[in-house]
Amino acid sequence: MRIWLEKQRHLIDFTLASLARRKTKNIGLLLAYTLLVFVLASLTLFTHALRSEATYVLAGSPEVILQRMVAGRHDLIPPGYLDNIGRIRGVQKKEGRLWGYYYDPVLNANYTFMARPADEVADGHIMVGNALARERGLDKHNTISFRSYSGKLFTFEVSAVLSPDSELLSADLVLLSENDFRSFFEYPAGHYTDIALSVANPQEVRTVAAKLASALPDSRPILREEVLRTYQSVFDWREGIVLTVLAGAILAFVILAWEKASGLSAEEKREIGILKAIGWETGDVIRMKTWEGLLISLTAFLLGFIAAYVHVFHFGAAIFEPVLKGWSVLYPKFRLVPTVDGLQIATLFFFTVFPYTAAVLVPIWRAAITDPDAVMR
Amino acid sequence: MIELSNIKKAFNQNQPNEYWALHGIDLSIEAGKVTAFRGPSGSGKTTLLTIVGCLSRPTSGRVRFKGEDISGLPERFLTDIRRQSFGFVFQQFNLIKGLSALENVILPAFPTGRPRSELVAKAGDIFDQLKLGHRSAAKVEWLSGGEQQRVAIARALINDPEVIIADEPTANLDTALSKEFMAILEGFTAAGKTVLLTSHDPLVVESSAVHRVVGMRDGRLTEA
Amino acid sequence: MRPSSLALGMLAVLVTACFLIFGLVSRLSVEDEQKLNANRALVEKLGLTDLALFTEARYTRHPTQADLHSALQDHPGAFDHFPSGSLLPPPALLTQSHAHLAGKTTSPD
What we know:
The complex is a heterotrimer of chains A (377), B (224) and C (109).
Chain A lengths: L1 H19 L2 H35 L6 E7 L2 E3 L5 H4 L6 E7 L1 E6 L4 E8 L8 E4 L1 H7 L6 E5 L5 E9 L5 H4 L2 E5 H8 L8 E6 L5 H11 L3 E5 H9 L7 H22 L4 H12 L4 H33 L6 H5 L16 H28 L8
Parallel strand pairs in A: 5-9, 6-8
Antiparallel strand pairs in A: 1-2, 1-10, 1-11, 3-10, 4-5, 6-9, 7-8
Chain B lengths: L1 E10 L7 E11 L4 E5 L6 H8 L7 E6 L2 E2 L5 H11 E4 L11 H6 L9 H14 L15 H13 L5 E5 L7 H16 L3 E5 L3 H4 L6 E6 L2 E2 L3
Parallel strand pairs in B: 3-8, 3-9, 6-7, 7-8
Antiparallel strand pairs in B: 1-2, 1-4, 4-5, 9-10
Chain C lengths: L2 H24 L3 H17 L11 H4 L30 H4 L14
């Protein structure tokens, strides 16, 4: 055992001395490789963490949201609609919701206004999301004015700013009382935006939705499972930018491996011949080259993965921010809960370490098995 | 010690450029002596030496080393014997560029798994014997011709082989260095090692250090 | 120092760091758990249905609530003209058949 270990250390010594002869080239290779792994791992970690968090958090979403459609477009819920639902078995609670969008010309940003019951927000007061507060410099007890779509100016006092931890959900929210909402948007009396229903038994939800659809043919029920499914496919690898990054990374990697695998120079062949002539077996040469492949690819993978972890969970995936932010003005500051999808990381490992090591081994195979007398010539 | 029976070697067999380098060599080499092979280029001296030194196999014929038939052994055992019993000094030295003299010298011992400290100590001893100690850390491409040759010799000695094989050892050396080389050879004999070498150089072949001269021409022995 | 010792040592450090990471993520820390539960409670209280990731337009802000026709869509289910369009696929409900909206009436036409 000791002999085996010492032998491997000897082989590693030789490999490293050999790599050190072309220091810049090999360090450049290592860096490029690490960068590749870093980008891919960051993408994987980020999308997985975002998806898990969305799934966990949105599990609190209403079981059924009922929208009303007129000519394929979303329309308001008229008065009395709520009662038409009647008493469908399994529906515990039905609540008309009031929410909408407001465009703020000061920041060129869109806000989401939601009406809340009086015990949460009093008339004349609003609660705002943290990103909004940050962008407009708002704090508790500050006042802010909005010009409604009818041209009137409404002034509100901020009674609370929502927690910064919830920015991912509440970045652009403005919560106000129902009366304020209705007067601000000149919402027709008795109308609602949509209806939120809670169903006790999760297995009953589809049946309830079907009953609703038949009772109210112009309605469109949106189930919680559909909400969750939407966020399961966020950043799916088939989506545009993710696919582009992935394709680019894979291409870069293939070029790297191809360059390695595309044959030995005469110098390298000669060296393998010399090694065999001085007493190395074929197996020793192959083991040495395997170490070369493993050392570089393992180091690159581990470094890239650790850097990706720190990047995503401590720096909030700063590199992806411009992409995600796009044309938004308000972008939530959020720290994802660290979570790793073992399977994806293992896949990344297999697809980076093994192909590279194989790419290093393939060209030397023939040279390693020939008789060393060719060296003499 | 080494017996060759009807050794024949062909290159590119069954192809249009088939070439027979050796046409049936029968030879017996004594232990502890220096045997020199002389002959013009193309006479097969180098080929013969590679077969004796287990670097290649004969096309037909047998090689016996200390009574054991080694020409038919599988690669692993052959490499083992090569490593333990034979030390090769190539005409072109064949040192690995970019590595230091020390690293080159201990390289043949790597597969044995001996501890590095032991190898470095042994290399140190050999360097002292060959008066190379001050150059052990230098990269081999910076060494002079004579120093490179001594590094090549040191490398051949690291595994304490019984047989040293040197191919045209003085071809790249001046007279002074050639004489130094012959002195080293005498040291080998004194230590009980067997030496085989090839040479055109009369300084080598006619030297008192050489016990036996074997002539070769066109793949056959001339004077036995 | 012997190069192989350096290399193996460095690899050992990196592997340990990786194991540490896996150890860290295997269990939710107390604060993270609290944070997640607080957010879930907020979702329940306010009846939220979407993350506020893409606030560029209303149909990117609430992708799960988006309707079939919106401005600047080349395809009824496509979010486009925003970078977010290449990150989010259209919600499954928009790509399903909507024959049911044709309205199955109980009385003959």
